[in-house]
Every structure is written in structure tokens, then in C-alpha cells.
Amino acid sequence: MMHSIPSPQLSSKQVFEQMYQYMDTPALLIGSSGQVECYNSAFLKMFHNGGIEIGKTPLELVFDVPLREVQSIRESFAVKRALKVVVRSFVKSFVNQQYELFLSPVVLHGETYYVGLLFPLVPIVVHPDPELSQFQLLADNSNDFLALLDHEGAFLYTSPAITRILGYHHDELAGDRPYDFIHPDDQERMVRNYQMLIKKGSVLPTNYRFRHKNGHYVWVESSMQIAPATAQSPLRTIIITRDIEERMNAWKAQLNAEEALLASEMRYKILTEVTNQGVLIHRNGYVVDINPALQRMIGLTDEEFKGKAVLDFIHPDSKPMVLHNMQSGYNGTYEVLVLRKDGSHFVSELTVKNMVINDENFRVATLTDLTDRIRHEKQVRDSEERFRGIFDNAIAGIAFADEHGRILLSNSAFSQLLDYEVDELNGFLLCDLAICESEVLCHQSLLSCLIDNQVPGYVEKRLMKKDGSIVWVNLSLSMIPATERTPVYLVAVVQDITAKKKNEVALIEALDYNRTINQTSPVGIITTNARGKITFANYKAERMLGLSRNSASPYAYQLPKWQFRTKDGKPMSAAALPFMQVRQLRKPIHGCEHMIVLDNGHQLCLSVNAAPIMRDGEFFGMIATFEDITEKIKKDRELIRSYEKMSELNATKDKFFSIIAHDLRSPLANLFSLTELLHKNYREYDESTTTELIQLLYENSSRTYLLLENLLTWSRSQCNKLTFNPVMLSLLHMVDDTIQLLSSGIIQKNIALVNLCDRQIDVLADQAMLSIVIRNLLTNAVKFSHPGSAVEIKTFFDSRYGDKVVLAIADQGTGMTPEVKDKLFKIGQQASHPGTQGEQGTGLGLMLCKEFVEKQGGKIWVESALNEGSTFYVTLPLHPVVGPQSRDKGAMIGNLKEC
Q1: Is there a domain that residue 248 lies in?
Q2: What residues does the PAC domain cover (predicted)?
């Protein structure tokens, strides 16, 4: 915390007395809580009645203040804003006089006070029914500018004082309206005052700006009063105006001074308490004040500083210089050694300035700790030395250039590469050293590449040596952005690859000998360099891969945009490419199969054999052969599909023979046995036994007939001999017909079949196929239901199946395990299970249901749990006449889990 200077600092009361004591205007100093702290002699002479107790008497007890003005004063004190109020004095001799009290907030020594200035208002004394001649007699002898307005608000008369105040002749404004001369910013306020005057008869004096005859505006104060209309004179308005320009200027000057004082205090606080620099103020060599930053630097509190000599904190080596500068009054900056509390010291930059405060001499010293700066400078010097050592001894050539590419500095490796002396290259343009593919100097293309970000890492370039010969290099060109201290720099790093390029050329020449053989090869052959760029391709490879030679370079190819995929058509990772595998493993690979999608969309399946090209143990490139296996893969896939189809046909055949051999043989054997019994013994049986045997014959023959019908229907469907003929069908009627057909089995087991299908729903389906589906599903539901239970058939809609209706058949029977449920609709895997009363089946009915439902564009699935019953679901397409309204009637969104 910054402490105040004891001797030159004045109290709040002393500051007020120095500023206002000898002013002719009455003035008060008021505390933030509204109590009068002190006042000047002018206030004492005009207002003081002996009843003011300094620091305790509220402002409203000093003056006769209206109640509403007291509230305004308290609100202004709370938000610390300026205020103007009209008050009266309690002093008898001034009891009828009104005054304007201007209250302005000021900050003294961190506390808020209010300065109040009083200005008298001239009372308006007007005869209740003045005649114009009498008013003129009164106004002509007044120092204030008096005016009389008619009932329309225009000037009837203006007193001669207008010439002194506003420059107009006293008859010049007759007939004009005052509104036309008021400053635009004050017009609206004056209109409101005039309207209030007409309504109430009087208003408080108002300050505003009136246009002077020469064009500028003058601050004036006007009091207005209505002269009531009589039989002799109509309603008129009396205005008394005085010049307050000097008063307003003084008030503005006071506000500016107060703002300047506040700003000065804030600046002092910021400079001393917020800054990281240490600040010390001393007089005659003894410390007066310090700031927190200096306390932290030296490790002492403010109490430990007070009264001590400045030289107590200076290292003995620096004391003579500091003492000499203090005695000579030196103003400036120099370095000294400053002592800490623990006895250590640090180098500080000391800036000293002499100041005079209230006729006393002070010296203000600002201390900056140079420890970090010295350490940083040493680090920079060490870094520069390390960089210089690396730069000068680097194997690669390095050159720094300006933003235009002009060389500023290069190391010995760079100059030796081009056979120049180090200083000879300074001033050369980098572009003048590089040669393009067109065998001419690069000019600006090298920089254009850099600006357009077209140089990814190292690129191969040819540079011209001093003697005109060519050297191949790997060139890396990068830009160092500008900073506040440095401009833009270019850094060029080059590595000599002339020997490597010669080896590449030798390799290409060697490959040329084999070109004729390679061109007649039935497989594609390519070679690449170490970066994977194709350097050779035979005729077969060019035609298969869509390669074309680059006209600018005979050994470069124009590569299309390939897409690499696995032979299954999935995207292929870069690591799985033959080149990446060979480069990584450093050994040959064989039989790598993948797919390439060419520019024209053609897909090519390749079998690739590749081997690395090694030179002196280093990877130099790859040689690869490949052949087109697209047709082979297609044939393999066709064989797989044929095998799968054959397996399915075999399963169908096995199922067919299984049904004939087992499921059809058993009921036929039963029929034979029953008919044999009746044939041999029908005369010996009584009527009940004969009836029972006939009933058994009927049931057995019915099951056999149903089995044969399903078998023949399924056989025709497998041979594609069934025709699909969709018509409009009512699900409600189809279910009712099937229930009637199965009535005997339903009655026997006492099963309740509940048909809840929406009668407004029609489906587009083949009647025969749909009848078989419903019959088989209801037969199964009855078969596996317990006697006395119910089977429920209903329809509903589910948004997951679009515009299709869902038919659900739910029983309360035995249910099934997940293993059995998974095999229901799979050929050759389903198995028939006996019903709750031993009913037999083949499992063929559900296969027919699946095929017939899918032929009609629907789906079939089941939800079941063991001993909890089963629900079979079928989706069917709606008939076009069925609209959303019809569907919504029976809509019931189910939370289904599709099997």
C-alpha cells in the first residue's frame, strides 16, 4: 500500500479553505453522509445563524429545503452525482430570498465529499394586473433582461438590458418567439417548462442557452410567471432573464479542476501501487514513502523503511556515486547495486527526478531490477554462440535471405557447394542460382512456390555453380515470419545429391537395356525410387494402370488419381500398400492382392509381387510385377455362389425326401391300419367304436391332405410355377374365413380366437398365398395353445415399416427357446414339435409362410419365450385407397424387436 507524504499533504478542510475561503460566493464542504464539514467566510456572513455544529448538522437543517429536494439530495449522495436544488435561508434578513445550491462530488484523500456553491435568485415582483406602460417603467430600470410575452408566446416587450446581455435592440425581437432563439439541445426542456407554467402558474428558474445576435449562444437563467388575464389585458407571460455565463464557466472550471485532481490521484496510485517498478520518495536523503514493488524487491515492510537514510539500502560500491548525485541534484538514469534485507544485492537501473511539493524539495527514485535482463542477455549471447557454431559447422548448406530472396548470410558448406567464397554470395538472389526443368534460371518461381505453399519439405533442384556447372541438391525453403524486432527472413537448406542422381540415371540406363524384354512381358512391371515415384513402367503396366509419360521429363509419369481398396472393395490403408510393405520390411512380398479404381471408374484387381532395390544397405526403390486377376476373382465368386445355391438345393432335396420318407409315411400307415380294422371287423364293432374309428380316419386323412397340399404348394414355389396375382383383400374377412375353416380343432381344444383386425384396412396381396399364410399361422397358434386359452389376431401400424400394416397373431401357449426360434425359417434346420395335445407337423408351413410373405414384399418374424407363448408378426402392403386417416384409426405403435 502506498503511504501519503506527511509534511506536504493537506487535510480536506485545508484544501477547501485554500480553494474557497476568499471567494465572494458562499460555499460549503459536505461529507458523504450529508453533514456540513466547514464553510467559507461568504457563507458565514450571509447565512450562518449560530446553529451549525461542524460535522454533525445535516444539510437540510442549514437551509429551508423542500421535502422532495431532500430526497433528491440523498439519492445523489448515494450514486455520487452532481445536483442543483433551490433553497431558502433561515436567516431572518434573507428569509424571502431563494438561492440555487450547486452540489458537486469531489474525492479528497480517498473519501468522497460534496462542494456546495450558492447563487441568489432575483425574486419576481409583478403587479397582479400590470399595464404595459407600468411594466416598461419597471423593466427599463432593471439590470436584468425583462420580457413580456403575449398569449401566443411572442415578445410584446423586451427591456434595454437585452442589448448588454444578448446584443439585440430592445425593440428588435417584437413579434418573435423565444423558442426560435433557444439552443436546439434545450428547446424540448423549455417547451415542457412553458407548458408547466401555463398549467401551474409558475416554475423554478431554469438555465438554458439563448442565441446572441452575433450567432453564438449565451448561458442565461430565466424565471417565468403568468400575469392573469383581465378585461383590460389578455393573459401574458413575464420573463426575467440574467446572464450566468461567468457562473457556468466557473462551475465548469471547478468540475474540470476536481476531475484533474481525481485523475492525478489515480495516476499516482497506478504508477506507485500497480507498477512492477520500485518507487522511493525521500527528502534530504531520508525515506518518506515507498511502493509495494520496492518492498518486495528488498524484502522490507513500510515501517522498516520510514526514517531511514537512502544510503542504508545502497551497496558500498555504489554509495559514493549515489551520494554525489544526491548532493548535485542530478536528474537522470544510472545503474547501482541495491542491498536486500538478507544481505544479498542486485543490479538496479535507478531513475531520479527532483520535485517541489508545497515549497519543499523531494527526490523521486524509480528502481528497475536488472537481474532478469542480465540473465536473459547472457542466455541470448550463449544461444547466439551455439547457433553460430552449428551454423558454421553444419554439413548441410544453409543460407538466410530477405523477403525478396536476396542472400544475407550463408555458411561455408553452402558456399563450398557452389565453389564461392562465403562473402561472395551475399547479395545474390536465390532464384538466380536455381535452374528450372526448362533449363533456364528459376527467376521468381522459387519464391512463388514458397508463397503458394507448394514446397512440401525437401524438393530436388539443380543449382548453378560459380563455373557454370550444375549440382543436384535437395532444397528446403521456409519462411520466418516478421516480429516487432525483425523483418521477414527466408531460410534455404541444401544437401548435395549429385551422386545419388548419377546413380538414378545409371539405373535408368540399365533398365533401358531390359526395356524391350519388359515391353513383351505378359505381366506389368514397374520400378520406383525411394520416395515411391514411378521411374519405369512397361507397356503392359502403362495400359493396365492408365499411365502416361510426362512430356517435360522422359523418365517421369503422369499418374492418375487411383483409389486403392482390398479385394473385398474396402478402403485400403497406406501401410498395406506393396511399396510401404517393401520399404518397411526390406524384403520381397508375394501374392499381395488388392483393387485399384481408375479415373474412369473401372475396377482392376491385381496380384502383386514386389522386391526392394538396395544399394549399400540402403533402400533405393522397388521393382514390382503384377497381373490382372479381375476375371479370376469374378469366376471364383461365381463358383462360390454356385456352391451356395447347390448346397441350398441339396438341403431342399433332403427336406423334400425327409418329408416323403417320414412325415408322409406315418399318416399313410395310420390310414392303412384304420381302414384294415374297419374292413375286417366292422360287423363286430358297436356303433360308438365305429364312429370313433371313422373320426380318427377323418382327422388322419385331413392332416395327410394338408401335408400333401403344403408339400405340393412348396414344391411349385421352389420351381417358380406359382403366379403372384395381388388383389384388394380385407384382412378382417380373411381371418374370419380361416377361423371358420379351423373350427373343429378350435372347438375340440376350447380355444378362443379373437379377431381384432381393423375392418377399414385392405391389403394388396395374392388371395391364395395370404390364405395359406393365415391358415398355417392360426393352425400353429391353436396347436401350441393350452386348452381353454385364447389366440388374439390384430393389426396396427409402426413407423419403422413405412406404409405397411403389421398383422400380429399372439397365443398363450408353450412358447419356444431362442435356439428353436433361430431355426424356424431356415431350410433344412427347422424341426416339427408336437402340440399341447400331441398334434404332429412337418415345419414346412412356416417355410411356405416366409416365402409367400416375402413374395408380396413383406417380412415375417416371431417373438417368443419358453412357457410364455409366441407372437408371429407379418407386414403386408396397403391397398392404395387406404389413406392416413384410415390407418390412424387402428394405429397402435408397438415396441417390437425384430428377429
Answers
A1: no
A2: 457-509
